């Protein structure tokens, strides 16, 4: 089969690789019908995730068809169309028992495209198939379901729920890439009074307005001044960091009001300064997190019911063999306007 293989920082190739097979009785093999690229994949290629070994197949998001299943797999079977979650869960450990699947101690967590071969391939082996895939109803398209593999549950759980967005809040989202846009979409479920998007790219700010941002702040603008004017000097109730840079995290801590919440989603490859000399007196709550995907069934129900339309995040479509072109497009959003790219089997 063909797969996108990581060969160390800055090096990747779409090349022949051994086809996966069932190894453990809890495994399934899934034919990849649709796959996407995540900002985390770009972080890996930058060298920000040194735990990824050269030779690993990248990718942790896919929709596909089960082709084989181990003897202990009881929920999915060959022929089933499934969402492959970015998080694998053993279902038995201390963390899985309380829904913290991202912290799985039994061999799961974020492993696909990280510690084991991932989804940017023609086929993928999915460990713990019963607890790491979601059977898809006929009315949900591959493209819509694909947005549930990572960006929607990540934005919802790590951003909106961890940030405790409430009706009437002012929510500022720093970073209007795919995760930030998903945070706008899912924050709207809680009817905040204002959603503010901060990003230097005009195309992403246009997308933010289209998806429900009430105010956008671009390059050369003053985000602190805009938030102060909007909130009569108080600051935002919730600031969601969706970039992963020291300066964007520190900006969030400046934009939030005393007693507010800073919810960090971004993947950080460098230290950020926590200015406790200023923050200690402001009663802030700062949260971090890896998505657990406990909300995926709820979000899937909302898509099936027509309450969410995640297809609006998709800007570019490619054949699965066009992996190199898809990466080049996704990695240069300023020039291409890319938000989410989808690669589908022909």
Automatic annotation (TrEMBL):
SMART domains: PKS_ER. InterPro entries: ADH-like_C (IPR013149), ADH-like_N (IPR013154), ADH_Zn_CS (IPR002328), ER (IPR020843). This is Zinc-dependent alcohol dehydrogenase family protein. Belongs to the zinc-containing alcohol dehydrogenase family. Pfam families: ADH_N (PF08240), ADH_zinc_N (PF00107). It comes from Nonomuraea guangzhouensis. Keywords: Metal-binding, Zinc. Residues 10-343 form the Enoyl reductase (ER) domain.
